[in-house]
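P.,

For your records, the input lines for the assembly:
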Amino acid sequence: MAEAVFTARGLTKVYRSGEVEVHALRGADIDLYSGEVSVMLGPSGSGKSTLLNILGGLDRPTAGTVRFRDHELTNASERELTRYRREHVGFVFQFYNLIPSLTARENVSLVTEIATAPMKPEEALTLVGLGHRLDHFPSQLSGGEQQRVAIARAIAKRPDVLLCDEPTGALDSKIGVLVLEALDQVNQTLGTTTAIITHNASIQGMAHRVFNFGDGRITSTHVNETRVKPSEISW
Amino acid sequence: MKALDRKLLRDMKRLWAQSLAVAFVMAAGVATMLIGLGAYNSLSETRAAYYERSQFADVFAFAVRAPKSVSAEIRQIAGVGQVETRIVRPALLDIEGFDLPATGYFTSLPASGESSLNKLHLRSGRLPEPGSLREVAVSESFANAHKFKIGSRFGAILNGAKRRLTITAIVLSAEYIYALGPGDMMPDDRRFGIVWMREPALAAAFNLEGAFNNVSLRLLKGASAADVLQSLDRILQRYGGEGAYGREDQLSHAFLDAELQQLSAMSRIMPPVFLVVSAFLINMVLSRLISLEREQIGLFKAIGYSPASIAFHYAKLVLLISAMGVAIGFAAGTWLSYGLTLLYTKFFHFPYRIFVVSPRLYAIAGLVSVTAALIGSMRSVANAAALSPAIAMQAPAPPVYRRFWSGRIQPLNHVSQLTIMVLRHIFRWPLRSLLTTLGIAFSVALLVSSLFTVGSITYMIDVTFDRADRQDSTFTFGEARPAQALQEVARLPGVLSAEPFRIVVVNLSNGHYTKRVAISGKPAAMDLSRVLDLELRPVSLPKSGLALGDTLAAKLHLKRGDIVHVEILGRNRLEADVPVIDIIQSYIGLMAFMDIHALSQLLGESPSISGVHMLLDPAQSDRFFSKVKEQPTLAAMALQRISLAKFQETIAENINIQIAVYVGLASIIAFGVVYNSARIQFAERARELASLRVLGFTQFEVSRLLLLEFALLTLAAMPIGWALGYGLALALVEGFQSDLYRLPFIMLRSTYAYSALIVMAAVAVSALVVRRRANNLDLVSVLKTRD
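C-alpha cells returned:
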C-alpha cells in the first residue's frame, strides 16, 4: 500500500454561527494515500468542505489531530500554515477565484513566482489543454476554461496535494468532463495526490478511493478496483 | 418606520466609519466657512458698534498750528456734522523699572467734560480733572504692560520739560483698536501707549495755547468724503496742514481692515477645497454601495418601488451623512470661530466683543455643503434609479481588464504579477484612481498653501531687517530739525553710527490714480537703512527723482521713467512733477524714496531732518537709554531689534496655531480619501486577496498589494498637489495684500517636502487601518461565496 500523505484522527470542528453552534465535523478519521485520486461524496453540510479546509491549512480543527507527512498541522501558527500552503498545497474552488486583472498565464505566474521548483506557466496551462489561451483575461474565458486555469495555477508549483472543492459544481456535464480530464491528466503525469469534493456521485468512478460523508463523519470508504475514464462520465 | 428607512439606518450603521470620514471632510468645509466668515462678521460688527458708540471720526488731519477759530470755518464745510480740534503730539516716556525709553502718544481731552468725537471708553477711574496739569488717562494695554493702576505715576518729557504724571483713568479708544508705535512692526505695549491729558495742560506744554494741531470730523450721511478732504486741506494749508485723510488711511482702522480682508480671502479660498473633496467622497462611497446593492435595488423594483422612491432612498443616505458633517462643522466652526475672535481681541483692543452667530451664515454654510454632497451623489443615485430590475438581479459582469498597449510590447516582463495587478487595477478604474489622486493632492495643496508662509515671512524679515533696515534704533523728532541735529545724536554714548532721514507727507498722483504717502529722504551714502532694488541690491538715490516701492508703483500705474505728480501736504503746499527713477522692493507699507538733499530742494527749505537711524553698541545700551530719556527734542524712538523680536514671537505663535489647524484639516482630507477608497477597494477585492492568501502569499505580501496602490497614487498626487498648492498660495498672497503690507511669494523646497511628508503619514495611517482588515480576512467564507 502507498504511503499515507494525510493522517487525521478524531477531527472535530465546531463553528459558532451567531448564537448557534454548528458541529461541522464530529470525530472524522481519514487517511489519504500518495498518488491517489480520492473523491469525497456527501450531501451539503456533511463536513467534507470543512475537512478539506483543515487538510489544506485554511482552517484548524476544534479537536483531533491532523498530520501531513511529518508536519503536524493541528496547532500550526498562521505563518506556518501560510508556508505549508505555499509549499505543498494546490487549491481548486467551485468559483475559480482567478484574479480578474491578470491573464491566464499571469494568474499561473502568480504561483510560479513564489514556488521553489515550479513548472513553466505555459507548461501548466498546456497540461490542462489551454496552451492556446495564454494571454486571455478571465473575462475572456468560458467557465470551464477559467476552472482549468485555476487547476493550472494550482498544480504549477508541483504541489504534493491538490485539493478541489466542487471543481465542476458550476459547470455543465460536457465542460465539467474537460475539467475532470485535466485533473486526471495532472494526477497521471505528476502523480499529485488529489482530493475532490463533490456531491455528484457519477464522479466517484474516476477515483482510486471514495469516502462517503454524513453528519460530520465518514460513513463508508471503498476502493475502486477499476477506474472509469473521465470521458466516460456524464451527469 | 418604513422598511426602506429602517434599511437606511442599518446601512448607515454598517457604513459608520466611512460615513464619518466623509462627514469630517464636509465638517472641515463648513467649519472653515464659519471660522472665516464668523470671525469676519464678529470683528466687523464689533468694530461698527464700537465706532458708532464712541463717535469715531470719519476724517482726520494734522496741522502745525492752527488757531482755534479755524474750527468754525471747518464746521462750515458742506457735509461736516461734527468737528473736534485737539492737540496730538508724541513724547518720550520715562517709566520706573523699565530701562527702555517708551513713546507716549499725547492726545488732548477738552478743557472739561468728555470728547464729542473719538470718545473714550472708561475701564476704570475717572477722566482727569478739568484744569489738572498732571492727571492723565492711559490706554489699557499700555497700563497692563506696566501693571499700572489708578494712581500710578510715570515720567514724560513734554517739549523738553520732564514731568511726573498721575494716572486717573484707564481707557480704551476706537482710534487705537490697533496701537502701533512709530517705526514698529508689531504692537509693543510696553514701549508704546496713548496718554490723554486735559487740553490746557497739553497746550501749555507744547506752546499751543489757543491753537490745535489735529482735527477730526464726523461727516453727515451721504456727504462726499473726497470733497470734505479737499476743503479741509484748503483751510489747513495756511497752518501747515499735512493733508487730511479718511478712515481708510487711519492706521488702526487700516490694520483692522487688512485683517478683515485676510479673513474674507480665507473664507473664499479654503471652503471650496473641502466641498469638492467631500462631493467626490460621497460619490465614491455611494457608487460602491449601490453596486453592492444591485440585487436589492432590482428586488425593490420588482416588488413595485418606483425609480423616484429608490433615488430618494439613496439621496436620504447622502442627506444623513451631510447632516452629520454639517452638525460637526457647526460645532467645530462655532468653537474655532469663537477662539479666533478671542485671538483677535488679543491684538485689537475692543471694550466688548460681539460674537455674531448669524443664523443666515449657518444656513448658507449648511446649504452649500449639502448641495455639494447631493451634486456628488447625483450620478450614483441616477444610476440606481435607472437600473432595470431584470439586469439588477443578475450578478454584474466580471470587470474587463486589458493588457498594456494591447500586449504588443511587454514592458512588464520583469515586474512581479502582484505589481501588474496593482497597475492594471489603477488603470481599470482611471476615473476613480484620478479622483483619489486628486483628493490626496488637495490635502497636499492645503499644506503647501499654509506652510509656505513660514518661508515667506522668514524671507520678508531677512529682506526688511537684515538687508534694508539694519539699524538698531530710530529717533523721530517732534518736528523737523536742522541737519546739525544729526551730530547731537551721533554724540550720544553708544551710538556707533548715525544716519539722518527726512519724512514728508505727500499726495502722489498719476492721472486719476492718487495716493497719500510719505516720501523718505535718505542720504546718498546710506548704510543703515538702505533702499533695495527688485533684485535686492542696494540702490543709491540720484540727485533728483523718486524711487517707488513696487506695490505703490503698481497702484499708481507707474513704471521707471514715468513722471509722477507730487503735491506736498505741508506748510507750503508745493506741487512738482518728478521722474520715477527706480522701482524698488517693498513689503511693508507704500514706500517712496528720494535723496535727502533733493527732497529739501523740492521743499524749498534748508537741509533738515525728521529723525536719525542708529547702530548701537550693545555694551553701552544702559548709558544710551538713560541719556535718551533726557533728550528734550526726541518725540519717539523705535527699537528695531526689539521690534523684530516681538514680531517674530507673535508671528511664531500665530503660525504655530495656523499650522496645527491646517495639518489637522489636511490630515482629515487625506485620511478621508484614502480610508474610503481603501475600504472600498478592500471590499471589492476581498476575493482576490483571499485567493492570494490561499495560494500561499503571506499577509505582508497581500497587504502590500493594497498599500502599493495607495503609495503609487500618493506619489502621483504629490506634483499635482504641489502645483495646486502653489496656485492656492498665490491666490492667498493676492488676497492678503493690503496697503500696509504684502507677503512676498517665496516657495521653499522644504515646504513641498514637509507637505508631502505630512500627507504621506496620514495616508500611511489610513492604509494601515485598512490593512488590519486584510490581515483578519476570513479566507474560507470569502472564497466559498459567489461575487
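Two observations worth noting. Residues 403 and 424 of chain B are 8 Å apart (CA to CA). The first strand of chain B starts at residue 59 and ends at 67.

Regards
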